[in-house]
Amino acid sequence: MRIGVTGASGMLGTALVNRLSKIHTLFATSRSQGVEGENIEWNCFDLTDSQLLLKWLNKTKPNVVIHCAAIVNVDTCEGHVDMATAIHVEATQVIVDYLDKNNSRLIYISTDSVFDGEKKDAYNESDLEKPFNVYSKTKLMGESSVQSMSGGLVLRTNIIGWTQEGKMSFAEWVLKGLINNEPLGLFYDVYFSPLTVYDLSLIIEKIIENPIFGLYHCASSDGISKYEFGVMMAKIFQLSAASINKVSIDSMTFKAVRPKNMVLSIKKINSTLDYDFPSVVDAIRLMKSQYEKKNNLLN
Fold it and tell me: Which ranges of 21-153 would DSSP assign to H, the alpha helix?
């Protein structure tokens, strides 16, 4: 199968390119080139240039596009509304129009932050969206265009894992702080249900083989606060949690307002896919085993 991946040098994009190139022909695009290998063709350009995007789509003729590209820094989006709209809404619409016209499929990677965070338990797909910031508003607009096409799938998620050199994910930032005994201010009042990019890439591979369409939440099987996540990382990595400070998000002055509860219910996708969705503890344990394997290879 011919598969296009946008944002292919990012954390999820890299995991997808590595996994899917083993059995499919991969057409990877990003601002900078990532992992190389057999069955991988790179084309680096600005996704917000609709002419270049259409040229890439016409050239590669993908059966499926996995649209990972996004500006994930929510404060950056708040100060650059046009840029966020261009990537999350306008570029998505170009991809939707092309794929719908050519009877191809789109898997759109969305966010867990489209709700107001006031709900006491996990959010399901039928809950009313109420995005607080530019990032989540524009991602939701992108969702809308994807759901208008016959072959569209929206996956709302929150990912953790290992990034390429020079970048750092939330989990990596926590681990670095723990290893170096640096002060870590972690929110006790912000909850999420993170999934490793390893698991998400495997789930997406299953979906490519057995298509589903519409809107699905794709997360870990439970939720945890950012503070509890840090304490759990310390325990599993056998490090001291003494440098972790319990703080409230209300004490921060971010540009963008953030929801407190981002936990997603996976009941719908769990009943559709044959997959054993991991808990947050499982996800951290997997990260530890990957960390040890990587370090053993380096030593």
Answer: 50-60, 74-79, 81-85, 91-101, 134-147
Tens of pLDDT, residues 69-96 = 999 999 999 999 999 999 999 999 999 9
The amino acid at 266: I
Burial class (CB in 10 A: 0-12, 13-18, 19+), 246: middle
Q: How far apart are the first and last CA of the chain?
A: 37
Instruction: With CA atoms as reference, report the closest residue to 285 among 160, 179, 191.
Output: 160
> The CATH number of the domain where 73 resides is what?
3.40.50.720
Best CA proximity match to 111, nearest among 148, 159, 65, 76? 159
Amino acid identity, residue 241? A
Q: Residue 71: give the domain boundaries.
A: 2-166+193-223+263-279
Q: By C-alpha distance, which of 185, 194, 190 is closest to 259?
A: 190
Sign of the alpha-carbon dihedral angle for 195, 160, 139, 145 = negative
For the chain, the farthest-separated pair of C-alpha atoms sits apart, in whole angstroms, at 56
210-249 pLDDT, tens digit each? 999 999 999 999 999 999 999 999 999 999 999 999 999 9
pLDDT tens digits along 33-55: 878 888 999 999 999 999 999 99
Work out how many domains the chain is built from and give that number: 1
Alpha carbon dihedral 159, 161, 167, 172, in 10-degree steps, equals: 110
Token pair belonging to 111: 């966010």
Helix, strand or coil, per DSSP, at residue 207: helix
Question: What would the mean pLDDT of 155-174 be, rounded to a whole number?
Answer: 89
Percent composition of the chain: helix, strand, coil (DSSP 3-state, to 5): 40, 20, 40
Identify the residue whose tokens are 């009313």: 128
Give the mean pLDDT of 109-135: 97
Rounded CA separation 154/156 (Å): 6
Task: Provide, rounded to the nearest whole percent, the portion of the chain with pLDDT above 90.
Answer: 92
From residue 152, give the alpha-carbon distance in Å to each of 8, 38, 48, 190. Answer: 19, 28, 20, 30
